[in-house]
């Protein structure tokens, strides 16, 4: 797939995901390719590719002879996914603090600093893209390809939910501050602080999404760094 085509597909997948998360496309709705192509002013091919992407996130089900259906994602399922995400990302941050090379640390610090300008300009698209890159740096910084692949895969599954948090007022600034705690710990080589800061960050990402979606989840016992 060419870069332009991939970008169009990812943008379309993001727009469909937003429509699902804000309730425009309700759970159980059938996602007709013709309808979506007309709605978003595109052809069926990128729609089909976008639906395949979304199927990996659990937002939709692809069923034989029925096509794509908006899935019913329960609060309990999201809770389990976010707990797993938090543990994996916290482990990546801890190992990054121990294993990142000097060059990787400089690049991490430079990206984090550049994101401050995005926050100042309230540039949500740029920040969202940089946010993905920042977290990918933590995965790569583990120098453990197995852990990096597992964490990236779960992040893709939670991608639409994590992107949705940035619609919450003031979330960009808070996200940047939370990242700051993780970045400073990693740059200082403080593995314990990096683990705690990342675990805290992912728990707040979950909270931001819950508040935005108006979801009342029953809390389950789990350790949350403060």
UniProtKB/TrEMBL annotation:
SUPFAM superfamilies: GntR ligand-binding domain-like, Winged helix' DNA-binding domain. Residues 6-73 form the HTH gntR-type domain. Pfam families: FCD, GntR. Keywords: DNA-binding, Transcription, Transcription regulation. SMART domains: FCD, HTH_GNTR. PROSITE patterns: HTH_GNTR. InterPro entries: GntR_C, TF_FadR/GntR_C, Tscrpt_reg_HTH_GntR, WH-like_DNA-bd_sf, WH_DNA-bd_sf. This is GntR family transcriptional regulator. The lineage of its organism: Bacteria, Pseudomonadati, Pseudomonadota, Alphaproteobacteria, Hyphomicrobiales.
